[in-house]
Amino acid sequence: MEFSAQQIADYLKGKVVGNPAVTVSNFSKIEEGKSGTLSFLANPKYTEYIYTTQASIVLVNDSFVPEKEIRATLVKVPDSYSAIASLLTLAESMQPKKNGISSSVYIADSAEIGDNPYIGAFTVIESRVKIGDNAQIYPQVYIGDNVQIGDNVIIHPGAKIYKDCVIGNNCIIHAGAVIGSDGFGFAPDATGTFNKIPQLGNVVLEDDVEIGANTAIDRATMGSTLIKKGVKLDNLVQIAHNVEIGENTVMAAQTGIAGSTKIGKQCVFAGQSGAIGHITIADRSTIAGRAVAASNIKEPNQAFLGYPHMKAREWQRSHTCFKQLPDMRNKIFELEKQLKELKEQLTAK
Protein backbone atom coordinates (compact mmCIF):
# COMPACT_ATOMS: atom_id res chain seq x y z
CA MET A 1 0.00 0.00 0.00
CA GLU A 2 1.05 3.57 -0.67
CA PHE A 3 0.83 6.45 1.78
CA SER A 4 1.43 10.13 1.15
CA ALA A 5 3.54 12.41 3.32
CA GLN A 6 0.37 14.20 4.41
CA GLN A 7 -1.32 10.93 5.43
CA ILE A 8 1.77 9.95 7.43
CA ALA A 9 1.92 13.37 9.07
CA ASP A 10 -1.76 13.20 9.98
CA TYR A 11 -1.32 9.76 11.52
CA LEU A 12 1.71 10.87 13.53
CA LYS A 13 0.33 14.36 14.27
CA GLY A 14 3.38 15.80 12.59
CA LYS A 15 4.12 18.57 10.09
CA VAL A 16 5.11 18.21 6.42
CA VAL A 17 8.06 20.20 5.09
CA GLY A 18 8.13 19.74 1.34
CA ASN A 19 5.73 18.00 -1.03
CA PRO A 20 2.73 16.63 0.95
CA ALA A 21 1.59 14.52 -2.03
CA VAL A 22 4.77 12.43 -2.40
CA THR A 23 4.08 8.75 -1.69
CA VAL A 24 6.01 5.80 -0.25
CA SER A 25 5.35 2.07 -0.17
CA ASN A 26 8.31 0.74 1.82
CA PHE A 27 10.97 1.61 4.41
CA SER A 28 14.72 2.10 4.10
CA LYS A 29 17.73 3.07 6.18
CA ILE A 30 18.66 6.70 5.63
CA GLU A 31 22.12 5.84 4.30
CA GLU A 32 20.60 3.37 1.81
CA GLY A 33 17.45 5.29 0.98
CA LYS A 34 15.67 4.66 -2.32
CA SER A 35 12.94 6.53 -4.13
CA GLY A 36 9.51 5.49 -2.94
CA THR A 37 10.67 4.63 0.58
CA LEU A 38 10.38 6.28 3.99
CA SER A 39 13.35 6.67 6.31
CA PHE A 40 14.09 8.48 9.57
CA LEU A 41 16.81 10.46 11.32
CA ALA A 42 17.13 9.94 15.08
CA ASN A 43 20.86 9.51 15.73
CA PRO A 44 22.92 12.67 15.05
CA LYS A 45 25.73 10.46 13.72
CA TYR A 46 23.62 9.92 10.58
CA THR A 47 22.81 13.58 9.93
CA GLU A 48 25.13 13.75 6.92
CA TYR A 49 22.99 11.21 5.06
CA ILE A 50 19.86 13.34 5.11
CA TYR A 51 21.48 15.57 2.49
CA THR A 52 22.26 12.66 0.14
CA THR A 53 19.55 10.07 0.81
CA GLN A 54 17.31 9.05 -2.06
CA ALA A 55 14.41 8.27 0.31
CA SER A 56 11.27 10.16 -0.65
CA ILE A 57 10.19 10.94 2.93
CA VAL A 58 12.29 11.27 6.07
CA LEU A 59 10.98 11.52 9.62
CA VAL A 60 12.93 14.04 11.71
CA ASN A 61 12.60 15.58 15.15
CA ASP A 62 10.86 18.93 15.50
CA SER A 63 14.16 20.43 16.59
CA PHE A 64 15.98 19.50 13.36
CA VAL A 65 17.21 22.51 11.35
CA PRO A 66 18.85 21.68 7.98
CA GLU A 67 22.16 23.32 7.14
CA LYS A 68 21.64 23.01 3.38
CA GLU A 69 19.06 21.91 0.83
CA ILE A 70 17.38 18.54 1.30
CA ARG A 71 15.84 16.65 -1.59
CA ALA A 72 13.47 14.52 0.50
CA THR A 73 10.17 15.65 1.95
CA LEU A 74 10.43 15.90 5.76
CA VAL A 75 7.80 14.97 8.29
CA LYS A 76 8.61 16.68 11.58
CA VAL A 77 7.51 14.88 14.76
CA PRO A 78 8.38 15.21 18.46
CA ASP A 79 10.39 11.95 18.47
CA SER A 80 11.34 10.40 15.14
CA TYR A 81 12.45 7.11 16.70
CA SER A 82 9.09 6.58 18.39
CA ALA A 83 7.38 7.66 15.20
CA ILE A 84 9.16 5.11 13.00
CA ALA A 85 8.38 2.43 15.59
CA SER A 86 4.71 3.38 15.38
CA LEU A 87 4.72 3.17 11.58
CA LEU A 88 6.55 -0.18 11.56
CA THR A 89 4.00 -1.54 14.02
CA LEU A 90 1.20 -0.31 11.76
CA ALA A 91 2.82 -1.92 8.71
CA GLU A 92 3.26 -5.22 10.52
CA SER A 93 -0.37 -5.21 11.65
CA MET A 94 -1.43 -4.96 8.02
CA GLN A 95 0.47 -8.11 7.04
CA PRO A 96 -1.75 -11.17 6.48
CA LYS A 97 -1.91 -13.48 9.48
CA LYS A 98 -1.61 -17.25 9.24
CA ASN A 99 -4.55 -19.27 10.50
CA GLY A 100 -5.65 -22.83 10.94
CA ILE A 101 -4.15 -25.91 12.55
CA SER A 102 -1.77 -28.11 10.59
CA SER A 103 -2.76 -31.76 10.16
CA SER A 104 0.63 -32.83 11.58
CA VAL A 105 0.10 -31.10 14.95
CA TYR A 106 -0.30 -33.22 18.10
CA ILE A 107 -2.83 -31.77 20.53
CA ALA A 108 -3.75 -33.74 23.67
CA ASP A 109 -7.46 -34.37 24.16
CA SER A 110 -7.50 -32.39 27.41
CA ALA A 111 -5.89 -29.28 25.87
CA GLU A 112 -8.04 -26.19 25.26
CA ILE A 113 -7.39 -23.93 22.25
CA GLY A 114 -9.01 -20.49 21.93
CA ASP A 115 -10.57 -18.89 18.88
CA ASN A 116 -8.79 -18.05 15.63
CA PRO A 117 -5.54 -19.98 16.19
CA TYR A 118 -2.62 -20.71 13.91
CA ILE A 119 -0.64 -23.80 14.92
CA GLY A 120 2.15 -24.88 12.58
CA ALA A 121 3.37 -28.31 11.57
CA PHE A 122 4.92 -30.73 14.07
CA THR A 123 3.98 -28.67 17.10
CA VAL A 124 3.23 -30.70 20.26
CA ILE A 125 0.67 -29.49 22.80
CA GLU A 126 0.51 -31.71 25.88
CA SER A 127 -2.20 -32.46 28.44
CA ARG A 128 -4.31 -29.78 30.13
CA VAL A 129 -2.70 -26.92 28.19
CA LYS A 130 -4.86 -23.81 27.88
CA ILE A 131 -4.22 -21.42 25.00
CA GLY A 132 -6.11 -18.12 24.56
CA ASP A 133 -7.52 -16.47 21.45
CA ASN A 134 -5.56 -15.44 18.36
CA ALA A 135 -2.50 -17.56 19.14
CA GLN A 136 0.22 -17.70 16.48
CA ILE A 137 2.22 -20.86 17.18
CA TYR A 138 4.78 -21.66 14.50
CA PRO A 139 6.13 -25.10 13.52
CA GLN A 140 8.00 -27.42 15.87
CA VAL A 141 6.99 -25.70 19.09
CA TYR A 142 6.71 -27.83 22.24
CA ILE A 143 4.23 -26.88 24.99
CA GLY A 144 4.32 -29.06 28.09
CA ASP A 145 1.65 -30.27 30.49
CA ASN A 146 -0.48 -27.69 32.33
CA VAL A 147 0.98 -24.69 30.51
CA GLN A 148 -1.32 -21.66 30.39
CA ILE A 149 -1.00 -19.19 27.51
CA GLY A 150 -2.96 -15.94 27.18
CA ASP A 151 -4.46 -14.13 24.21
CA ASN A 152 -2.56 -12.80 21.19
CA VAL A 153 0.62 -14.72 21.96
CA ILE A 154 3.21 -15.39 19.24
CA ILE A 155 5.56 -18.36 19.64
CA HIS A 156 8.17 -18.71 16.91
CA PRO A 157 9.57 -21.97 15.50
CA GLY A 158 11.35 -24.39 17.80
CA ALA A 159 10.55 -22.66 21.08
CA LYS A 160 10.04 -24.94 24.08
CA ILE A 161 7.77 -24.23 27.04
CA TYR A 162 8.12 -26.77 29.83
CA LYS A 163 5.31 -27.99 32.06
CA ASP A 164 3.36 -25.74 34.44
CA CYS A 165 4.66 -22.44 33.03
CA VAL A 166 2.37 -19.44 32.56
CA ILE A 167 2.53 -17.06 29.58
CA GLY A 168 0.51 -13.83 29.75
CA ASN A 169 -1.29 -11.90 27.03
CA ASN A 170 0.49 -10.33 24.05
CA CYS A 171 3.78 -12.11 24.69
CA ILE A 172 6.28 -12.92 21.94
CA ILE A 173 8.68 -15.86 22.28
CA HIS A 174 11.31 -16.16 19.56
CA ALA A 175 12.84 -19.21 17.91
CA GLY A 176 14.80 -21.59 20.07
CA ALA A 177 13.87 -19.96 23.39
CA VAL A 178 13.41 -22.33 26.33
CA ILE A 179 10.98 -21.37 29.07
CA GLY A 180 11.01 -23.49 32.23
CA SER A 181 14.20 -25.53 31.90
CA ASP A 182 15.55 -26.85 35.20
CA GLY A 183 17.40 -24.43 37.43
CA PHE A 184 21.09 -25.24 37.97
CA GLY A 185 20.65 -26.83 41.38
CA PHE A 186 23.03 -29.52 42.69
CA ALA A 187 24.15 -30.45 46.21
CA PRO A 188 27.48 -32.18 46.90
CA ASP A 189 27.49 -35.20 49.23
CA ALA A 190 30.28 -36.50 51.45
CA THR A 191 32.02 -38.09 48.47
CA GLY A 192 32.00 -34.88 46.43
CA THR A 193 29.34 -36.16 44.08
CA PHE A 194 26.85 -33.52 42.95
CA ASN A 195 23.27 -34.69 43.37
CA LYS A 196 20.49 -32.98 41.46
CA ILE A 197 17.99 -30.91 43.44
CA PRO A 198 14.54 -31.32 41.89
CA GLN A 199 13.23 -28.07 40.41
CA LEU A 200 9.52 -28.11 41.23
CA GLY A 201 8.52 -24.50 40.47
CA ASN A 202 7.69 -22.79 37.19
CA VAL A 203 8.22 -19.67 35.10
CA VAL A 204 5.62 -16.92 34.88
CA LEU A 205 5.72 -14.35 32.07
CA GLU A 206 3.29 -11.51 32.67
CA ASP A 207 1.63 -9.56 29.83
CA ASP A 208 3.56 -7.87 26.99
CA VAL A 209 6.83 -9.72 27.57
CA GLU A 210 9.16 -10.48 24.65
CA ILE A 211 11.80 -13.22 24.83
CA GLY A 212 14.62 -13.29 22.28
CA ALA A 213 15.91 -16.22 20.24
CA ASN A 214 17.81 -18.92 22.14
CA THR A 215 17.19 -17.28 25.49
CA ALA A 216 16.72 -19.62 28.46
CA ILE A 217 14.64 -18.91 31.56
CA ASP A 218 15.00 -21.54 34.28
CA ARG A 219 12.08 -22.71 36.40
CA ALA A 220 12.17 -22.02 40.12
CA THR A 221 13.27 -24.62 42.62
CA MET A 222 10.07 -23.74 44.50
CA GLY A 223 7.62 -20.99 43.58
CA SER A 224 8.13 -19.05 40.35
CA THR A 225 10.81 -17.41 38.28
CA LEU A 226 8.92 -14.19 37.56
CA ILE A 227 9.25 -11.99 34.48
CA LYS A 228 6.96 -9.03 35.02
CA LYS A 229 4.87 -7.00 32.61
CA GLY A 230 6.60 -5.34 29.68
CA VAL A 231 10.03 -6.94 30.14
CA LYS A 232 12.08 -7.33 26.94
CA LEU A 233 14.90 -9.89 26.78
CA ASP A 234 17.27 -10.01 23.82
CA ASN A 235 18.73 -13.14 22.21
CA LEU A 236 21.03 -15.45 24.19
CA VAL A 237 20.03 -14.23 27.64
CA GLN A 238 20.22 -16.59 30.64
CA ILE A 239 17.82 -16.11 33.56
CA ALA A 240 18.45 -18.51 36.45
CA HIS A 241 15.97 -20.05 38.89
CA ASN A 242 13.86 -17.91 41.22
CA VAL A 243 14.91 -14.63 39.60
CA GLU A 244 12.41 -11.77 39.56
CA ILE A 245 12.65 -9.11 36.86
CA GLY A 246 10.62 -5.93 37.36
CA GLU A 247 8.26 -4.25 34.93
CA ASN A 248 9.64 -2.79 31.70
CA THR A 249 13.20 -3.87 32.35
CA VAL A 250 15.28 -4.58 29.23
CA MET A 251 18.31 -6.84 28.79
CA ALA A 252 20.60 -6.97 25.75
CA ALA A 253 22.22 -10.09 24.32
CA GLN A 254 24.38 -12.41 26.44
CA THR A 255 23.23 -10.97 29.74
CA GLY A 256 23.29 -13.50 32.57
CA ILE A 257 21.36 -13.25 35.84
CA ALA A 258 22.24 -15.71 38.61
CA GLY A 259 19.70 -17.38 40.87
CA SER A 260 17.30 -15.64 43.26
CA THR A 261 18.29 -12.12 42.19
CA LYS A 262 15.51 -9.55 42.35
CA ILE A 263 15.68 -6.78 39.74
CA GLY A 264 13.58 -3.63 39.94
CA LYS A 265 11.46 -2.00 37.28
CA GLN A 266 12.74 -0.07 34.24
CA CYS A 267 16.29 -1.34 34.62
CA VAL A 268 18.67 -1.60 31.66
CA PHE A 269 21.27 -4.35 31.25
CA ALA A 270 23.61 -3.78 28.30
CA GLY A 271 25.25 -6.57 26.30
CA GLN A 272 27.26 -9.21 28.18
CA SER A 273 26.36 -7.71 31.55
CA GLY A 274 25.09 -9.65 34.52
CA ALA A 275 24.30 -10.00 38.19
CA ILE A 276 25.47 -12.46 40.82
CA GLY A 277 22.90 -14.43 42.76
CA HIS A 278 20.80 -13.52 45.80
CA ILE A 279 21.05 -9.73 45.45
CA THR A 280 18.52 -6.94 44.96
CA ILE A 281 18.86 -4.27 42.27
CA ALA A 282 16.96 -1.00 42.62
CA ASP A 283 14.52 0.46 40.11
CA ARG A 284 15.90 2.16 37.00
CA SER A 285 19.44 0.88 37.48
CA THR A 286 21.64 0.71 34.39
CA ILE A 287 24.32 -1.99 34.16
CA ALA A 288 26.71 -1.16 31.33
CA GLY A 289 28.13 -3.64 28.84
CA ARG A 290 30.27 -6.37 30.48
CA ALA A 291 29.60 -4.93 33.92
CA VAL A 292 28.41 -7.22 36.71
CA ALA A 293 26.27 -6.24 39.67
CA ALA A 294 28.18 -7.94 42.49
CA SER A 295 26.23 -6.74 45.54
CA ASN A 296 22.93 -5.10 46.42
CA ILE A 297 22.13 -1.86 44.61
CA LYS A 298 19.87 0.08 46.95
CA GLU A 299 19.75 3.53 45.36
CA PRO A 300 17.59 3.86 42.23
CA ASN A 301 18.41 5.79 39.03
CA GLN A 302 22.12 4.99 39.00
CA ALA A 303 24.43 3.73 36.23
CA PHE A 304 27.23 1.24 36.88
CA LEU A 305 30.30 -0.02 35.04
CA GLY A 306 32.97 -2.66 35.61
CA TYR A 307 33.35 -5.69 37.84
CA PRO A 308 32.64 -5.51 40.65
CA HIS A 309 30.23 -2.76 39.69
CA MET A 310 31.07 0.86 40.46
CA LYS A 311 29.07 4.01 39.88
CA ALA A 312 29.79 5.23 36.38
CA ARG A 313 31.63 8.41 37.33
CA GLU A 314 33.79 6.63 39.94
CA TRP A 315 34.65 3.89 37.45
CA GLN A 316 35.58 6.44 34.78
CA ARG A 317 37.89 8.24 37.21
CA SER A 318 39.46 4.92 38.23
CA HIS A 319 39.88 3.89 34.59
CA THR A 320 41.69 7.15 33.88
CA CYS A 321 44.16 6.25 36.63
CA PHE A 322 44.46 2.70 35.33
CA LYS A 323 45.50 3.92 31.90
CA GLN A 324 48.24 6.00 33.55
CA LEU A 325 49.68 3.09 35.54
CA PRO A 326 52.58 2.29 33.13
CA ASP A 327 53.83 5.90 33.29
CA MET A 328 53.30 6.04 37.05
CA ARG A 329 55.27 2.79 37.41
CA ASN A 330 58.18 4.20 35.41
CA LYS A 331 58.16 7.37 37.51
CA ILE A 332 58.24 5.33 40.73
CA PHE A 333 61.23 3.32 39.44
CA GLU A 334 63.00 6.56 38.55
CA LEU A 335 62.29 8.04 42.00
CA GLU A 336 63.54 4.86 43.69
CA LYS A 337 66.73 5.04 41.63
CA GLN A 338 67.27 8.70 42.54
CA LEU A 339 66.56 7.98 46.22
CA LYS A 340 69.07 5.09 46.21
CA GLU A 341 71.74 7.34 44.65
CA LEU A 342 71.02 10.07 47.20
CA LYS A 343 71.39 7.58 50.10
CA GLU A 344 74.69 6.36 48.66
CA GLN A 345 75.98 9.94 48.44
CA LEU A 346 74.93 10.66 52.02
CA THR A 347 76.58 7.44 53.25
CA ALA A 348 79.81 8.30 51.43
CA LYS A 349 79.97 11.66 53.18
CATH architecture of the largest domain: 3 Solenoid
Structural class call reads: alpha/beta
* Count of β-strands: 40
Low-confidence runs of at least 5 consecutive residues: none
> What oligomeric state best describes the polypeptide chains here?
single chain
Overall form: flat
CATH topology of the largest domain: the name is: UDP N-Acetylglucosamine Acyltransferase, domain 1
List the defining traits of the structure above:
349 residues, alpha/beta, Udp-n-acetylmuramoylalanyl-d-glutamate--2,6- Diaminopimelate Ligase, Chain: A, domain 1, UDP N-Acetylglucosamine Acyltransferase, domain 1, twelve-stranded mixed beta sheet, ten-stranded parallel beta sheet, 40 strands, 17% helix
Describe this structure in words.
A hairpin with a 4-residue loop joins strand 39 and strand 40. By secondary structure, the chain is of the alpha/beta class. The strands form 6 sheets. A 12-stranded mixed β-sheet has the order 8-11-14-17-20-25-28-31-34-37-39-40, with helices on one face. Strands 9-12-15-18-21-26-29-32-35-38 form a 10-stranded parallel β-sheet, with no helix packed on it. The protein folds into 2 domains: 3-93, Udp-n-acetylmuramoylalanyl-d-glutamate--2,6- Diaminopimelate Ligase, Chain: A, domain 1 (3-Layer(aba) Sandwich); 100-313, 3 Solenoid (UDP N-Acetylglucosamine Acyltransferase, domain 1), CATH 2.160.10. It is built from 4 helices and 40 strands.
